[in-house]
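Problem 12. The chain below contains 610 residues. Write out its predicted structure in C-alpha cell notation.
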Amino acid sequence: MLENYAFPGGMMIGTDSHTVNAGGLGMIAIGVGGADAVDVMAGMPWELKFPKLIGIKLTGKLSGWASAKDVILKVAGILTVKGGTGAIVEYFGEGAESISCTGKGTICNMGAEIGATTSVFGYDQKMREYLIGTNRENVAKLADEVADYLNGDSEVYANPEKYFDQVIEINLSELEPHINGPFTPDLATPISEFSKAVEKNGWPQKLDVGLIGSCTNSSYEDITRAASIAKQAIDKKLKVHSEYTVTPGSELVRFTVERDGFLDIFEKIGGVVLANACGPCIGQWARHNADKEEKNSIMTSFNRNFAKRNDGNPNTYGFVASPEITTAFSVAGDLAFNPLTDYLINEDGEKVKLEEPQGIEFPVKGFDVEDNGYQAPAEDGSRIEVNVAPDSERLQLLTPFTAWNGEDIKGLNLLIKAKGKCTTDHISMAGPWLRYRGHLDNISNNLLIGALNYFNDKTNSIKNQITEEYLAVPDSARTYKTKGSVSIIVGDENYGEGSSREHAAMEPRNMGVKAVLVKSFARIHETNLKKQGVLALTFTDKNDYEKILEDDTFDILGLTDFTPGKNLQLVINHKNGTKDQINVTHSYNWSQIEWFKAGSALNLIRLQNE
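Solution.
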C-alpha cells in the first residue's frame, strides 16, 4: 500500500514530532530522534516496522465555527493517544478535498498526539493552490504531472474496509467544535457538552489565559479567523476577560499578518504577540504566579496539554481548541460559555452575540518577509572547530557512553516505578530547562521530576536503596552513579509519548540507567532509548507491572544470546529474599542490537568509520 503514498521527493524524516505537518502537502513525513537523522546523514539506513493503515473518510464540508482543528480533536477522542501507534493515518473523501492545505497540515501535525507514525492527505487542488501561493509553482507543475500517483487508487477509496486496517468516517457538515483536555489531548468534548463537563468534573470555570498560534495553528487562515473574533470584540464593545497571547509559527506568517493589520487587532484587545518560537507550548513565557501552583484553567490552540507542560504548575488545567474558539473563550473568560449559542454583556450593558469566524486562506497581497531567519551552512565544514569553555553552564562536549561489557546486567536498583501518563515532558521538562539542552549533565537535573511515583503518588520523591531516604529523582540517580551502581526505570502504558525530545533518552543513560521496562512505548522514545544504548523492554504480561516493589533490585538475563524476537528474562529480587522471574520482550532487530553492544548508535558509527 505504501506505493499509494509515493511522492516525487520520496519520504522525509525530521528531528521533531511535528515533522508530520508535511502530510498536509501529501508527504510521507515522519518524526524521529536526532540520532536517527544522524544515522541517515552518515549514510546508514533508517528502519521502521511496516505500519498498519488507518483510513479516515471525510464527507460533507466544514462551516461556521468548526475548523480543521476540530477534525483531529474528534479523531483524538476516537483513537486516544495510543490508538494510532504503529499506523499511518490517511484522510480521504470529498471532505478532505475541501479542507485548506494549512488545515490539512494542522490535522497531520496533531496526528502525533494519537501516536501515529504519520498522517497524510492525497494531492489535490488545495495543495496545488498553496504551492502556487507560496511561490512553488514549479513543484505544483511536477505534482500535477503525476497527480494520479499522489493518491490512492479509486478502488481503495470506494471500498476502504478492504484495504485499511481500520476505517473511521466523519461528516464535516455535522462536526461540532471540540475542546480537549485537561491533562491529555484525547479527552474530547463537543462544545455543546463542555459547560456540563466543566461543572461535573469541577474544572476551574474561570479562564485565566488564552493562547493561540504555535506550529500547529498559526497559518494565515488561522490568524485571520481568530482576528475576526477579536475584531468583533472591539466592534461590539466587549471587554476581554482573559490574558491573551499570539505565537506566530514563522517569520513569513508574522510579517505578513503584521503587514495586513491583524496583529494590531490582537493588541487592541490586550493581546501580547510573542516571538516566532515554541514559546508557551513548552513553557517559555512569562506565566504569572505559576510557582504558587494554584488551580487554574488555560486554553490553547497547541498540540499538547500534559500536566506542567505549559507552565510547570501541576494544577494548571490545560484545554486544547481551535484558535477561534480559544479567542472566543478568552473574550468571555468563562469555560461555561458557548460562543455558538450564548450572549455576552458589553460595556454599554447590552446583550451581544459573537458571529461565526471568517478567515482568509491566502493573503490578497501575497506572502511577504524581509528576513526569514535562514542561515545556510558553510560550504565546507571540515575545518570548523567547536570550542566550548570548560566552565560553561550551557554547553558541554559529549563523552561517549561506555560499551556493553558482554555480560548479563545484574544488581539494578529501581530508580522509579512511574504511574500513569509519563510523557517526554515528565521525563525531561522543557521551559527554563531548555537553556541547558547543550549541557547533558546540567539538564539531567530535571530527569523524571514530573513522573508520578507509584508508591507514594508524589512527583520527584523516590526511595533511594542506598541511603533508604526519599530523594529527588536526579539526586537518587546521582547517588547510584557515584557509588558505581546502575538502575532501571519501570513505566506504564505509552511511555514517552509527546515530543520527540532526545534528552529524555540521553539523560537516563547519562545518569546510569541501563534499562527501561514498561507496559508499552511511544514509538519515537523507544527508538531514542535504543540509540543511546539503553535497553528498551516491555512486559510480556502487563500484569507483571504489579509485581515490582519499592525495594526491589533486578537482574536482566539472556543478553549473551540477545536475538531479535527472543525474550529476555528479568529476575525481580525482593527485599524479603524471595524472587520473581518474568519474561520481558523487546523489538530490537540485528542492527539495533549492535547499537546496544557498542554502547550507542553514535559509538557504532565511530567504530565503522575509524
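Discussion. The two ends are 40 Å apart (CA to CA). Students who got a different answer should revisit the alignment rule from Section 12.3.
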